[in-house]
Design goal:
It is built from five helices and six strands; from the N terminus they run βββαβββαααα. It is α/β, with parallel strands linked by helices and 176 residues long. The chain has a six-stranded mixed sheet with strand order 1-3-2-6-4-5, with helices on both faces. Bound molecules: FE2/S2 (inorganic) cluster (2 copies). The site of one FE2/S2 (inorganic) cluster (FES) has 11 residues, from loops.
Length: 176
């Protein structure tokens, strides 16, 4: 894999560190400044702008991605902390032109309005459903308590996640 360099890096600029991360299954070797936040790395170095920035206080969850399978707020980590890690972003949910159940759920249950919070909501939900495939409504609400939505009132988001949980269980049962 070719080495990618931050667009802002210059030979006289800050010292860069080489990291290797796998993002949505693809390996990237990238030179980054140690101060670069993971969310900026994803958006600016890798051009994956599906991960949003909604605050500067670790409050909104719009930046949520999966780091080695666990939901994290990518504005609270430095990219260098994720060296040798596996990251999943919203861009990796769709596979072979087929929506992920969580995407299908948000579509079917009208889980979004402006959509700004949606990538973070979906990544939080995917991480959560991997640990709890049959959640109660209360457990879903607790799982997304770190993600803010200013549009929907959350009711349809909860329904969307419940839809995804049911769909994923049905698929798993069909394979058994
Ligand atoms: S941008 Fe990360 S929590 Fe708001
Ligand atoms: S759909 Fe607009 S912030 Fe959630």
């Amino acid at each position: 894999m070719a080495v990618e360099t931050a667009p802002t890096a210059t030979t006289t600029g800050p010292k860069l560190r080489r990291i290797r991360v796998t993002v949505n299954g693809a390996a990237h070797d990238v030179d980054v400044e140690p101060r670069t936040l993971l969310v900026h790395f994803l958006r600016e170095n890798l051009g994956m702008t599906g991960t949003h920035i909604g605050c500067d206080t670790t409050s909104c969850g719009a930046c949520t991605v999966l780091l080695n399978g666990r939901a994290v707020k990518s504005c609270t980590l430095f990219a260098v902390q994720t060296d040798q890690s596996s990251i999943a972003t919203v861009e990796g949910l769709e596979k072979d032109g087929k929506l992920h159940p969580i995407q299908e759920g948000f579509h079917q249950e009208h889980g979004l309005q402006c959509g700004f919070c949606t990538p973070g909501m979906m990544m939080t939900a995917v991480g959560f459903l991997a640990t709890n495939p049959a959640p109660t409504e209360l457990q879903i609400r607790e799982a997304i308590s770190g993600n803010l939505c200013r549009c929907t009132g959350y009711v349809n988001i909860v329904k969307s996640i419940d839809y995804a949980a049911r769909k994923m269980r049905e698929t798993a049962e069909g394979k058994a």
